Amino acid sequence: MKNFLRGFKHAAAGILYTMRTQRNMRIHITTAAMVWLFAYVYGINEAQQVLLLCATAFVIITEKVNTAIEKAVDTATQEYHPAAKAAKDAGAGAVLNAAIFAVIAAAMIFLDAEKLTAAFGAILQDWRYIAAFAGIFLGGLVWVVFGGKDIDGE
Known about the structure:
The protein is mostly helical. The chain has helices at 2-21, 23-42, 46-76, 82-110, 113-125, 127-146.
């Protein structure tokens, strides 16, 4: 049981590490929070919620895997090597693919002109929505800019 719980502790440390040290992870999480708030206002159905959950989770998961690849490669070699570059590029490409998928999924969900207009109207008419979006945006901006440094100083 101790080893089982220790595994959760290590997993939580990995989640916190990427949130604390990886600027792109902070961007992904801030963007996801804004998208989910908009989805609430927009009133998406359960199937759309599942699609949006899969899309946002896919981006966040691939960013974590990309960070693991980068750290493993950096540990293995300190000098330029074409295979190291290929590994890092492939990891970054996976994140880009996931982000493109998420944008396509969001477009499929949100590009209904009538509902989009109604959602923006609802946001602009209710100061709580404006405050929530502003808070997420400004908090995310501060988090992205001042969020932390990697153990390597990156």
